[in-house]
Amino acid sequence: MTPADDSRAGALISRAAAYLAESGIDQARREARLLFELTYGREVSWQLTHADEIMPDTELFADFVRRRGAGEPMAYLSGRKGFWTLDLEVTPDTLIPRGDTETLVEALLRHRPDRQSVASVLDLGTGSGCLLLAALSEYPQAFGVGIDRAERTAQQARKNAALNDLASRADFVVADWSDPVNARFDVILSNPPYIPKDDIPDLMKDVVAYEPGAALDGGDDGLDAYRQIIPRLPDLLEPHGLAILEFGIGQEKDVADIARQSGLSVVELCPDLAGIIRAIVLSL
């Protein structure tokens, strides 16, 4: 194979796919094509019809392939992740938004179908801002507050609000969710850490090695955050407000028990697209 052959689009993708497969990356050819698009801005349709095209800057492509093979998440390589209808910027300071978390937005729309019915939203542990910004995108009269204990994370959420033309309706505060909040809200959303501490090493390597541990660690049984957040909800919710929280697989009974002990009603337990109970809807 000549050097020219080595830098042809099809050859680059094939070698990348083989390397990723050997590294244990699922759907290796698909991932190789995504990395090619990230490097060169060429979509799959172009790749399929220009396999013999000679490509420049092959070292940049090779670097992306090496990093992905080592387990670095695609979202951190690209710096972008779609969530709901939003395009978000993500960094290693924030948990990567996942489709499962869209279950909370779906539940909110189901229980508040009138898009004029929500005036205020609180997001506890906002991270990238994905939940708060998705809610604001659906309720045009609402103003939202996102709370996160890390300044760099809050800065990223502010940037995402601006990227999605929502900065005028969102404020991001650096605080802990146990700190006082002197306001009440129509809707409270939260995707807190819920992985039991001892289970974290067993997660996928790209999660353990690259995503922020503080956004994963839910304490010994995974429920530490719920014991802090849920008892505060009666003082944070408007009289007819809703709180919607995400939790881990099999945690629904424990979270519901904490809610009932705090004087809250369980309105719904919500499955994700895989049928796994993923979120709880609470009211006063």
From TrEMBL:
<feature type="binding site">
    <location>
        <position position="177"/>
    </location>
    <ligand>
        <name>S-adenosyl-L-methionine</name>
    </ligand>
</feature>
<keyword id="KW-0949">S-adenosyl-L-methionine</keyword>
<dbReference type="Pfam" id="PF17827">
    <property type="entry name" value="PrmC_N"/>
</dbReference>
<feature type="binding site">
    <location>
        <begin position="125"/>
        <end position="129"/>
    </location>
    <ligand>
        <name>S-adenosyl-L-methionine</name>
    </ligand>
</feature>
<dbReference type="GO" id="GO:0102559">
    <property type="term" value="F:peptide chain release factor N(5)-glutamine methyltransferase activity"/>
</dbReference>
<dbReference type="InterPro" id="IPR040758">
    <property type="entry name" value="PrmC_N"/>
</dbReference>
<comment type="function">
    <text>Methylates the class 1 translation termination release factors RF1/PrfA and RF2/PrfB on the glutamine residue of the universally conserved GGQ motif.</text>
</comment>
<dbReference type="InterPro" id="IPR004556">
    <property type="entry name" value="HemK-like"/>
</dbReference>
<feature type="domain" description="Release factor glutamine methyltransferase N-terminal">
    <location>
        <begin position="12"/>
        <end position="79"/>
    </location>
</feature>
<feature type="binding site">
    <location>
        <position position="191"/>
    </location>
    <ligand>
        <name>S-adenosyl-L-methionine</name>
    </ligand>
</feature>
<keyword id="KW-0489">Methyltransferase</keyword>
<protein>
    <recommendedName>
        <fullName>Release factor glutamine methyltransferase</fullName>
        <ecNumber>2.1.1.297</ecNumber>
    </recommendedName>
</protein>
<dbReference type="InterPro" id="IPR019874">
    <property type="entry name" value="RF_methyltr_PrmC"/>
</dbReference>
<keyword id="KW-0808">Transferase</keyword>
<dbReference type="InterPro" id="IPR029063">
    <property type="entry name" value="SAM-dependent_MTases_sf"/>
</dbReference>
<feature type="binding site">
    <location>
        <position position="148"/>
    </location>
    <ligand>
        <name>S-adenosyl-L-methionine</name>
    </ligand>
</feature>
<feature type="binding site">
    <location>
        <begin position="191"/>
        <end position="194"/>
    </location>
    <ligand>
        <name>substrate</name>
    </ligand>
</feature>
<comment type="similarity">
    <text>Belongs to the protein N5-glutamine methyltransferase family. PrmC subfamily.</text>
</comment>
<dbReference type="InterPro" id="IPR050320">
    <property type="entry name" value="N5-glutamine_MTase"/>
</dbReference>
<dbReference type="GO" id="GO:0032259">
    <property type="term" value="P:methylation"/>
</dbReference>
<dbReference type="InterPro" id="IPR002052">
    <property type="entry name" value="DNA_methylase_N6_adenine_CS"/>
</dbReference>
<dbReference type="Pfam" id="PF05175">
    <property type="entry name" value="MTS"/>
</dbReference>
<dbReference type="InterPro" id="IPR007848">
    <property type="entry name" value="Small_mtfrase_dom"/>
</dbReference>
<feature type="domain" description="Methyltransferase small">
    <location>
        <begin position="107"/>
        <end position="197"/>
    </location>
</feature>
